[in-house]
Write a structure and sequence with these properties.
Oligomer: single chain
Helix content: 40-55%
Mean pLDDT: 76
Distance between the termini: 62 Å
Structural class: mainly alpha
Largest sheet: 2 strands, antiparallel
Number of strands: 2
Strand content: 5-15%
Radius of gyration: 23 Å
Length: 68
């Protein structure tokens, strides 16, 4: 593939250059490392809770299936 037709842009000069001073979680800009860790912990706790509910529900369904 020939890329000679594309201009050589310096990404550091671009408005879209990567900036590592913040992250975006669920559309919200987070610039504090503490807040980012808190959001991550909460997300994993929520995920774990939903996973436990799903496993418990599927085990109930397995017990019902074995009775019939």
């Amino acid at each position: 593939m020939d890329n000679s037709s594309f201009p050589n842009k310096n990404l550091n000069d671009s408005a879209t250059a990567y900036n590592d001073s913040y992250v975006i979680v669920n559309g919200k800009r987070i610039s504090s490392e503490k807040e980012a860790l808190d959001v991550t912990r909460y997300s994993f706790m929520k995920l774990g809770s939903e996973f436990k509910k799903t496993v418990a529900s599927s085990q109930k369904n397995e017990n019902l299936d074995s009775e019939y």
